[in-house]
Amino acid sequence: MSETIETSDLMAEKFTLTYYYVSPQDSKRIEDFKNCSGDSEKTLVTQYVRGWLSRNRDYYLELARIDANARAIPFREWGETVVEEGIEALPEYKQEIKDIPLNPLRDVALSPDAIRKGINYIALGRQNLALLRVGILYDRDNAIGFVSRIVREHLARNWDKLYAHQVEAEDFENWK
Question: Which pTM does this prediction carry?
């Protein structure tokens, strides 16, 4: 289900993401930053997803534990199965899941004029891959919608304070 790619001594897992959606404004922002940073779009989207999972790690770990407990399997077995075979390879639920914590992406919506951008895959460490998969499951969206909303949230929260000044500084007139 996931393909491992080698990066130095550690291994990253490929998460297939053939495309994602982004507003025209965010598409331009990504393109502008890509041009000044030298990063690829795949690298930027990967960084946004990793950042989201890091900021919300406790939430996604809690979901993973809830899911493993409801399926009556050890957490380690849950993680190994999710990484190596995917969520669909997990055993059936043995008990009903109650009291799911509020989704941190619940208020993030895609732009109605969103455009489709090809990407192929993102590379994640094992735990991030498992947390992304459980996040998608409990978000009740598909991977494309989930990652698209992460990109939207990231740029809305960070464009002005992290990226805009770097893009503007490409013009020497804007140096301060």
Answer: 0.89
